[in-house]
Design goal:
Elements (H helix, E strand, L loop, with lengths): L1 H27 L11 H4 L1 E8 L8 E11 L5 E9 L4 E10 L7 E5 L11 E8 L5 E5 L6 E5 L6 H13 L8 E2 L5
Antiparallel strand pairs: 1-2, 1-8, 1-9, 2-3, 3-4, 4-5, 5-6, 6-7, 7-8
Length: about 180
Amino acid sequence: MRIIFLSSALFFITGFFFSAMLADEKKELPPPTTVDSVDLARYVGKWYEIAKIPNRFQKKCVRNVTASYRLLADGNIEVINRCIQADGKVVDITGVAKVVDRKTNAKLKVSFFRPLGISLFWGDYWIIGLGQDYEYALVGTPDRQYGWILARQPFLNQSQLDEIYNHLRRQGYQPDSFEMTPQDN
């Protein structure tokens, strides 16, 4: 009985220290680097989600995920995210994004919770990669818990994906943590 107890205790202690070590490793990484500059007039429009790090708020979206951005008169950006759920229902949610780094336009905050038109909760939206012709965008967060690969077309070719995955690795992301998003278009 003592051996079982000691073995169990050793297992839990080892697991605790191993997970703490991994958490410390992740904390030691500096935040991802955003692109030098984003031309918002070129960035707005429709984007197709090519892949994402799975998250709780997109759990019901199974295919044809898109994000459409539109510049507003006040300098903010309207965000409309749309997807198809497993039952075939098309759902969308409208939010707002505000630029928090006017020098680069690459760091934004996004809010989809807007009771009475007041945005209460904001999430980071950092543009950490951008195709030369704005044909794709890589979006992440400082803690790397969230990430998206977006493109102007519903599909990217393998050489584009390889380039993107290499960029994500340089940014401290694990490309294997991204899941591809099926697109019918």
